[in-house]
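Progress narrative, work stream C.
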Amino acid sequence: MEHIAFTEVTEEADMADHFDANSFLKGLDAIFDAHEQAKKAEPYLLQGLTDAENAHDDAGQLTVLNEIMGFYRSQSRHDDNQWMVQRALELASRMGIEGTEAWTTTLINAATSMRAAGRYDQAEDLYRQALDSALKTYDPTDRRLAALHNNLSILYSETKRLDKSEAELREALRILESSSPNANEDLDVASTHTNLALTLLAEDKTEGAAAHAKKALEIYRDGHLEHSAHYASALAGYAQVCYHTSLFVDAVDAYRHALAVIEECYGTDNDYWRVTESNLNDAIKAARELGMSVPDENPYAGGNAERPADTSALGATPAVATGPAADTPVSAANSLLEDEQAAKADIAATLDRKPMTGLQLAKAYWEAYGKPLIEEKYPEYKGRIAAGLVGHGSECYGFDDEISQDHDFGPGFCLWLTAEDYAKIGEQLQADYEALPQTFEGYGPREQTARAQGAGRRVGVFEIGQFFTSITGYPEAPAEDAPHEWLMLDEATLAAATNGQIFTDPLGRFSKVRQGFKLMPQDVQVSLISRRLGMIAQAGQYNLPRMLKRGDGAAAWLSIGEFVKATSSLVFLLNNPVSVGYLPYYKWSFAALRKLSRRIATVLGDVPEQLETVMRLGSAACYGGAGFGEGGKGAAPAAAKINETVEHICAEIVKTLNREGLTTSSETFLEWQRPYVEEHIESADPALRSL
């Protein structure tokens, strides 16, 4: 087993009574090496967690929790694992390790646990957070990044989003091939080709599936990796493609070869053997029903597993079998490159428009036309140009739907260049971008409103600094010692600068600038928390009940609005923008809050629903309920419920401030919490403090 021991520099590190993470991991390895994990692993893990807690070693606890997550996942103990996942995320957040490899690793382990438990929405959100973190903590060619894309692909496959599964696998393959000293003999590359083949097969893209299945076997052969246990998966994947394309004799041969490898590596008393044997029997039956000749004996049995499989059959696409002679193949593309070119031609001929979000459409359009444009016309810049979709527009937040498609929607993506590269090729690249097909997958041409054209355009070619200047007024995030500049950037602006997706960023330049806007200085974040507490107190706890008593419905209505805005902002600030982003502009505030509330270990996760209750009752509280579905009962009951809900929210906020170490006071009128919170501001800059 491979483990990661997290480290943290603390005063306790010098104590004699401490938790030795490396010794703990060695002991765990010994249990697994002795195959005693069924009886001894859980007691050992739980004792290790207790020892780390007693030593006040947060890093040690996180190490153990990551191991427990993996163990419980392997045992399918998903309910038990939920608590461990939540503890790990809360601990990691409390340790302040965001932006480190330890944070990325914890997110990946938590996401994989959620995926195994079938909690796909939570898993996807955690994987996305892990990807954002990985962009900062991993090199662009780090193979762990490829593994993360592979994990996301599995999630998308399990949730029947095959197009996204395919895209993640292609990105994983790109990373692996670019990082491998010899991609033609790389086992990880081979495994990804197999996964991609099966995904394409599920999408009925048989030519592409065949090409990738063949490539996987070629890598095992060229790298002399036929004795690897993974070779059986490649053979079984190849066999599945053969079966799907009616090459039943070839499927039988590959399944038999896979069984020989499984027997060599695992024996025959396992589910892997039994499933493969069942598939073999299905292939034999299908072949014989069509009168095809199938040998009775397995030619690979008896230690002959190294014999290479014949992959010539999938060099062509067979006709659908309709009789004994129907297995004669017809000519088709023989290479992956030809398969991708054919896929592009198929896109132009698509008859039915697939439902796609703006981000999905942008990425697919980039893959089909943007990437080939760079590779063919600007090969020397291939490793320098970033692509993605970030900025203004509901699609950049992932909140778009069919209603959103009536304006500023259609095929398009962003290309981001350094100032040096933009000066050399920016103008010509923009012309080439504009020459790309205007329709794609049944969408387009892109209809752009006046505000999304010219200097305000949302897609096309941009110089990195100018792109961020157009959104924020700054080419890069303000300095940490310039808090007044940070305070002039409202959260909606910061949300627009840090949303969306980056499809590729080989230089990492764009990602670095984007991440800079996520890394709000701690003093600024605390100052904003204090300001939000003040507005929540003034609008919700003080003015709202007074305006309701006066019968000034309009003023009470506005007080509710200010209370809701300030509380919504506080929820994002307390969950840390580097992890969850910023509250977007009002139109999408509650879409963002609902999404945030579905995350594991979200701070104040139940507050968004309570805010909606306050807003829903506002009509009755402010205007007596007439015509608002409140039965004409008048304002009093609704007003009482709103005041009760506001105070309940404020009490939860105080508990959270105490738990996060921002206050030691239990005072629930939030204005009086501000001095305690502002004690944590280290800068002497008066702009950060309340009057």
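Work stream C, second folded protein:
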Amino acid sequence: MRDFSVLSDVEFEELAGDLLGAEVGVPVERFAAGADGGIDLRWNASGITTIAQCKHYLRSSFSQLYAAAEKEVEKVKRLNPDAYHFITTLDISVSQKERIYALFSEWMSGPEYVLGGRDIDALITRHPDIERRHAKLWVSTGMQLFWNLHSDIANRAEALRQRIEKSMPRYVVSSSYGPARRLLDEHNVCLISGPPGIGKTTLAQMLIAEHISVGYEPIEVSADINEAWVALSRDTSQIFLYDDFLGQITFSERLAKNEDKRLSDLIEKLSSGHSSKKLILTTREYILRDARLSYERLGELDSRYQFVLELKAYSKADKAQILYNHLWHSDVAASCLREIAKGGYKEILNHRSYNPRLVEYCTGKAFDTQSPGYLSRFKESLDHPERIWRVAFEEHLTDEQRLLVLVLSTLPRRVAIDVLLEAHQSLCCNLGVLSTESSFRRALEVLEGTFIAISRNRDSDTTIQHANPSVTEFALFRVASDRKVLEAIVASAVSFDQLAELFLYARGGSFIYGGNPELMTALKKMKEKFTAAMSASFDSPSLQQEKAWVPGVGITIVDPTGKLDERVGIYLQVDKEWHVGDEAIRVVVERLLGQWRNHKGDKAEASSTFTILSSHRSADHYMGEAHEVFHDWLGSTLDTAEDWRHYIDHLSEYDGINLQNEWDIADRFERFMEDEIVSSGPHPSDLDDMKSIADEFGLYELSERIDEVIAAEAEPDDDYERPDGFREGGYVTESYLEGLFGRLAE
């Protein structure tokens, strides 16, 4: 049976009306939401007037449904229709149907006038065109079928699946859905931007859900766009989600060296390709504006393909339905719902700070949804949205739980549970707060769904992150304002990476995001302790360790190859702010140059650090030697397309070489590409990159050959036809709103 739980009672009535209209072949009247006097639906066929009552009682027992049916008897007597239907989503048995029929037998020809969940399900099967009009239902059904048929994909995408299934019942198809779908149809790419809390992620999830329902494999990108390149499959319909792709607070967190090019290459590849591959990205509006100033290709591509959708404001109809759906699907006490129903909804819908995230918070388990004064508390959160986490943090959490929220702001966006456990226990120990592994697990249970989100990565390892960027901002504010906690975090850091995260959040450094001045001021006051902690933790394990195959050992956990490159870069940036000392800089730079002499490290991280070193106050002391060893490393290890890209960038940016005059290097590159083309086939991302390098060398015949290979690898088109089911909200009257929210008081 289909999952009717994704529908609200209003949405179910719309579905029932459409199904009965198709069944009887005449228009079915629907009435404004609210007190209906026993009529939800009405139609006239062959001179017989029939009315119907809909009861969406999925979360109730049959005894509750039967009690509700008994209350309808007097209403039906007053109306005295020619015929009467009683419709429910509850899966009722034959005997239960007979009992309801006995109540209304005077207006029913038989028990078949009582429609239960399975009867509705059968009607949907008989009228598939009606199901397509009710997108939440068919998308949910299609997703479940997809997961059942592809258990391997379901396991890999479990975290995404859970988030979509949690969001779908409360989702309202707003006026932004149509344009988003059209962008995906026309360009296969949609970049959703907008202010915090407006619903970017939820919109993206619904787009993903719709495509899953028609057979697209979902791929969630979490670290960098290379994950999408690696996962690309020529013969599979795929849809990629890259949420907050420019960072949660500032784009300076994101886009390692050359990632903007890889991302631009992927956007261009998908935008000019067939529709079996889709890409959805989300970001905050101000971060996108900021990034465009640094990454010109993003702006150039959007000018050409126009794939950016900016979410701005909701219509009043959208706002009302969002609020209603959240309240209807929540556990808000009946007395609190009455406060909303008796006019309180007006103050919420008309509030300047209204947005879906605040609505979700004020109807969720972190908020007091049981005590009198619910409307006042809701309005207080709207009046001061920056405080939405403060009350729950201060009044509902223990010291151990609070420290978990705070320490998470110093860790990677998604962190392994064992890493979080170690960092949390170290901080608790420093502050004298009792914490055990079992109490840590209980803290996770308390915080999940409010302050944190728990998921699994592609290796099925459990990872933890803040529930959304506003939690991270709140945690950083608390850390900056509590010197004792900040000093404890610095002193108890289990990895250099924690200190780096704090510093980068404080410094910011992008055009729009100036950083966190309060945090920077607090760190500066304790700079001696901070730099001492950096030195002490410089060789600590990375918090972003990777799984690797080691001969004779097997799969083991290792530090990323770019750990030293990245940490020296952070050291240089901290020195620029506070001058950590010439000897400390000498030690770390010489270690870095020693690694480059041995041709080790991560070239992307090394390139970034080389750039930082070139503008550092000590550049005169080290740049001659640094340039020599870096140039030798890049030029001596040209085994992959990525090696070539780093080498070409270095020659162009730092050596000022005109590549069209470098025939020896061009000849070497041409031989490399000849081998690549005749081999088992280079990666699609390498092909695009190699074509651009061939053009830079002036190797136009080679560029044409690469073009031919790219064309041969074009994905097959699919036969996906876009449904017309997502209807968009518009104007609503005050009487409609009164009736809609009046249902909550029944």
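The first helix runs from residue 9 to 24. No further action is required on this item.
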